[in-house]
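re: ur msg from earlier - yeah i can do the magnesium ion complex, just paste it... oh wait u already did. ok heres what im feeding in:
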Amino acid sequence: MTACLFDLDGVLTQTARVHNAAWTETFDDFLRRHAAATGEPYRPFDPDADYRRYVDGRPRLDGVRTFLASRGISLPDGTPDDPPGTDTVQGLGSQKNTLLLERIRTTGVDVYPGSVAYLKAVAAAGLRRAIVTASANGREVVAAAKLEPLLEARVDGLTARAEGLRGKPHPDTFLAGAKMLGVEPKQAVVFEDALAGVEAGRAGGFGYVVGVDRVGQADDLRAHGADVVVGDLADLLDDGRSA
Ligand SMILES: [Mg+2]
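and the outut:
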């Protein structure tokens, strides 16, 4: 193994919670309107099960479509100009992004100290390092977390759109990350906290897939493609528990 491909939110930065809160507010607003319009009972977004299964790790608009499909709801795609809160896929996506950026601006971005220690250790060992995130705000989050000096390449939601890469659980973005670092997939380790993300790692034929379990879903991470599951990247620095 000569390269590391890191997911960002939930692996290096503590932004999974912020994403989750922004999604919950967005979907609950919509589901209340939908219940009022159809007379069906209001069933809120489940920030645990619904987030993990249908939203986490996926590109924003795929997250909207996948969750709504799980409730038997389909909305028109709309356009990127739809204002936040319009009942279209783009409108809900844009509301989520607005809420997310507000939260990042007001509260900043926290890193996982164990992940920073791990990044420093692999950099010192001469391993190549890239970020592979579905987030269209990848650059802002990396900068806010002050992680730029430790990373050599970035594939984010904007790269994916520009290059026509399919999002996780497809392996395209991780494959692009390996290519940017000039390594073959088998030489690269994928680090992911999302079910869609470890699935992408398995689908891409990477050398090793490390599932990072922040929320107690170790079995699900293994079932979706993780070769090993750790609670924090610092666990990989301890010889005794090393993978
Ligand atoms: Mg993640």
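cool cool. The mean pLDDT is 94. ping me if u need the other ligands too
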